[in-house]
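All the exercises in this workshop are built on plain-text protein records. There is nothing in a record beyond a sequence line and a structure line. A learned vocabulary of local backbone shapes supplies the integers on the structure line. The question running through the whole workshop is how a given chain folds. Here is such a record, shown just as it appears in the course material:

***
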Amino acid sequence: MAHPDERTERSDEKPAERSQADLSARLKQLDDRLDRATGSGRSDDADKASHPMSNQGALGQAFRLSAEFVSGVIAGGALGLIVDKVFGSAPWGLIICLVLGFGAGLLNLARASGAFPGRGQKG
């Protein structure tokens, strides 16, 4: 292994390219030394298996749960507007249906998270 102070000068490369090449070579050497020191060869597949993608799974579940709640509120609001137009009961249809939509959103949220069993589920 070459000493870090001993560098071969190449006249055809720019200093930025040369330093990038030096860094890449040093990183490769360090990775090889780490593999030898730990006694087991590391691979990208092993790294992926040891670190589950918990962040992506949690983010996906968060989006799903928020969509379950928001969809109930939006559906209640839309139904309330329709009730107000048909029966001319503005703003009471909207208020009542928004409250019902809020409750339905909370129920959907509880079912989707598993805190409350849905239809057909025992538990």
Observations:
- Residues 15-49 form one domain.
- Helices lie at 15-38, 44-50, 54-87, 92-113.
- The CA atoms of residues 34 and 40 lie 9 Å apart.
- The chain has two domains: 15-49, 58-113.
